[in-house]
Specification:
By secondary structure, the protein is an alpha/beta fold. The protein contains 14 helices and 15 strands. The chain has three domains: 187 residues, 3-Layer(aba) Sandwich (Rossmann fold), CATH 3.40.50; 174 residues, 3-Layer(aba) Sandwich (Rossmann fold); 86 residues, 2-Layer Sandwich (GMP Synthetase, Chain A, domain 3), CATH 3.30.300.20.
């Protein structure tokens, strides 16, 4: 049963993202004075504890949705992206996402800025809600009421016709308790959300701007969850999209397109890149998305290095293959990628088209396979046999003729598979031999397409005496 949904809507810069983060209990949406920072529907799952007088009841779960500011670029006017395209072109897409969120939601938190009072754009949003027949869903919120001295200003929101507003401050937390109790009360018992299923796999899609990340997420989810546009940098936040395939719950994380640090335009882009880094950290598997019509740049190489350094299982997905099919062969392109990303030479490669949905089954299969590999725990006996065979075939060389000895080896962790080895000279296993050793372990053990972490330690002097 799907979770009930709670949509946060309103004009730009009334504090929707701050309120979203307050409810979530952590920073998810980017908060910045710049209007138009949020564009897509950013979602997370909120656990609602019962009010004190109903403490015997079970917690309820609700999916909360942060949305873009209604009328943002039309209201601001004259905003141009770094490629010279008018950002007002995004307005219909942003407003379509807001409209979709409002229709899908059981409750709508309609937020105004108490300090500004009711503005013409607030009235326009209110009219759209009434015209759509959604008035019964609305909980009016007067934000930026930091203390009771602002209460009178906040009550002005009652003029919008949705009843007495809740007075809150997303930044200080004033009024948050009453807001959560109201959400609890307004959720019908029959619609109370149960504990959501834990996703089978959480995967992040990373790449340069306009590689097709948002198109891929929408294709996988089966609906337009994130805005797709020719305007570079459309996605700002890292957007988690839950979807179900063959009874399995998956989460795709759409991330902001990465570009060179010196090209960052403002604080928003800094935070967008920080969100991408965080998405990589919390993902079980990463998809490095390439544009088949473009050569690999330093951006992709930097991302590949980052994925390698963080030991992230990675699928290299070559998008827009339909545009070059017949001009390039998969074999030649695979050899090209091996040269471009030597640190990911073991990563599987899939050729896809997000536009016509080709290659989706193969991509999801690879993601599931990598997740199984990276969380597999191998027995010590098999690992010992593998290490012995590798060393017998080719041991590390030493200028002093020292022979490598392994006293103990075992897998001590998963995600990534981590193998600890007690040896006589750890330095013998460093450098090019470590890379060779990892590749050999992949051939001998069920970790053929995922990073392996090795921890070498020297045998203590006391141990040598026994």
């Amino acid at each position: 049963m799907p979770l009930p949904r709670l949509a946060i809507i309103g004009r730009p810069n009334v504090g929707k993202s701050s309120l979203f983060n307050r409810l979530a209990g952590r920073r998810i949406s980017i908060v910045d004075p710049t209007p138009g920072v949020t564009r897509d529907r950013v979602t997370t799952i909120l656990e609602l504890n019962p009010p004190p007088d109903r403490s015997d009841e079970e917690p309820r779960f609700v999916e909360i949705m942060d949305t873009g500011g209604y009328g943002i670029y039309a209201a601001e006017g004259g905003q141009i992206d770094d490629a010279g395209k008018d950002l007002a072109l995004l307005t219909p897409d942003i407003e379509a996402q807001i409209y979709k969120a409002a229709h899908d939601a059981e409750l709508i938190l309609f937020v105004i800025d108490a300090r500004d009072g009711v503005m013409p754009l607030d009235e326009r949003v209110a009219k759209l809600i009434r015209t759509a027949g959604l008035s019964q869903k609305v909980v009016p919120i007067a934000n930026k009421v930091d203390d009771p001295s602002w209460d009178a200003d906040g009550f002005e929101a009652a003029a919008l016709g949705f009843g007495q507003p809740l007075l809150v401050s997303a930044t200080s937390g004033y009024g948050s308790k009453r807001l959560l109790e109201t959400v609890w009360e307004r959720l019908e018992k029959s619609n109370a959300g149960e504990q959501p299923e834990v996703p089978e796999v959480r995967f992040a899609i990373v790449g340069r701007r306009n590689a097709g990340k948002s198109s891929l997420v929408n294709t996988l989810a089966g609906e337009p969850r994130v805005i797709v546009s020719e305007i570079a940098g459309t996605t700002r936040d890292a957007v988690d999209v839950r979807f179900e395939i063959d009874g399995k719950v998956l989460v795709a994380i759409d991330t902001a397109g990465v570009r060179k640090r010196k090209s960052w335009a403002d604080d928003v882009e800094f935070y967008s890149n920080a969100r991408t880094d965080n998405a990589i950290e919390r993902a079980d598997v990463c998809v490095l998305l390439l544009d088949a019509t473009e050569k690999c740049s330093q951006i992709e190489k930097r991302l590949a290095s980052q994925l390698e350094e963080k030991y992230k299982p990675t699928v290299i997905a070559v998008n827009k293959w339909d545009l070059v099919s017949g001009k390039l062969s998969p074999k030649d392109y695979t050899e090209y990628l091996t040269q471009e990303f030597p640190g990911l030479e073991f990563a599987p490669i899939v050729f896809i088209s997000a536009k016509d949905a080709s290659g989706m089954k193969e991509l999801l299969g690879m993601i599931a396979n990598l997740d199984q590999q990276t969380k597999h725990r191998e027995g010590t006996g098999r690992i010992n046999n593998a290490v012995r065979e590798i060393l017998e075939a080719r041991g590390p060389s030493s200028a002093l003729g020292t022979r490598a000895k392994v006293f103990y080896v075992a897998q001590i962790d998963v995600r990534p598979p981590t193998i600890a080895m007690v040896v006589n000279k750890p330095d013998l296993f460093k450098g090019t031999y470590e890379r060779y050793f990892k590749n050999q372990l992949r051939e001998h053990l069920p970790f053929s397409e995922v990073p392996i972490k090795l921890i070498f330690s020297e045998r203590k002097r006391e141990e040598r005496r026994h």
